[in-house]
Amino acid sequence: MWIDIQQNTDQWLDLRAGKVSGSSIGKIMANYGKAFGEPAKKLAVNLAVERVTGKRIETEHYTNAHMERGHQEEPLARMLYEDTFFVDVTNGGFYDNGNTGCSPDGRVGHNGLIEIKSVIPTTHYATIKRGGYDPSYKWQYIFNIRESGCDFLDFVSYCSAYPEKKRLYVYRVEAASISFELEQIESRLSKFEVVIETIINDIK
Q1: Model's pTM, two decimal places?
Q2: Which of 16, 60, 153, 174 is the most buried (most CB within 10 A)?
Q3: % helix, strand, coil for the chain, step of 5
Q4: Which of 19, 8, 113, 154 minimizes the C-alpha distance to 67?
Q5: CATH, range 2-203
Q6: How far is CA 22 from CA 85, 86, 163, 175, 202, in A?
């Protein structure tokens, strides 16, 4: 179910309580094929508590200069993307699928998503040379396609320090090309849910 809501509001934070999200899926997919690491185990405890109480855990959100720059420059990257590809990007909202959900940076039509990363020159250069998306966010992109059911996700790297005509780099991730990775997520999530249920039983 898609909900038209603004990110980072109290209502948005409440919707995410107890759910595996795009920002947390990387912790679960780390060390795939092996036991869950400490970040995933801590995530499981927090999600279990939120599911039992029905309330989100209040935490202070970490931020730094790079993250603040990203928030400020995201609208610029969005407009440049729209002008370059002659499309309208609408609010990403929140895709709620019970125990999972995601919040893309925007929706492109009814079958596409956009994720914007405002980056420093070295990161932008490396991404362009790689000719793909930034692997640091691989599982977030694939998970967002899974949650939304969309056909594609456009990864956008934006660097305001770059020459004007080179500030935008876009790489499209097609749903049809990630069937293996989607199977990996399904397998890992099923095991992770067992961990959460065990913790919930311990709490109760």
Answers
A1: 0.90
A2: 153
A3: 50, 20, 30
A4: 8
A5: 3.90.320.10
A6: 25, 27, 31, 16, 27
